[in-house]
Amino acid sequence: MPHHAERPTKICPVCQRPFQWRKKWKDVWAEVRYCSDRCRRRRGAPSAAAEPPDSAAQS
Ligand SMILES: [Zn+2]
How many angstroms is it from 16 CA to the middle of ligand 1? Predict the structure, then answer.
């Protein structure tokens, strides 16, 4: 990969932050949705669904 190549980024739907491609995701990047295991677990937690939508609107 060229030195100047940009790494792809995605927005984590849990924390609403952009995160960059990581080497450990090279085989599963298309399936990666969350920036971290913590966010992935948070999204799976029952309390996450009960959170009001406003909490994600803060900038
Ligand atoms: Zn996240």
Answer: 6
The tokens for 8 are 């792809």
Q: Could you report the per-residue pLDDT of 3-54, keeping only the tens digit for each?
A: 667 889 999 999 999 999 999 999 999 999 999 999 999 986 665 555 556 6
Distance 59 CA to ligand 1 centre (A): 15
pTM of the model: 0.61
For β-strands 9-11 and 18-20, DSSP reports them as antiparallel
Report the C-alpha gap between 17 and 49 in whole angstroms: 19
CA of 1 to the centre of ligand 1 (A): 26
Distance from residue 6's CA to the centre of ligand 1 (Å): 20
The angle formed by the CA atoms of residues 16, 53 and 50, to the nearest 5 degrees, is 105
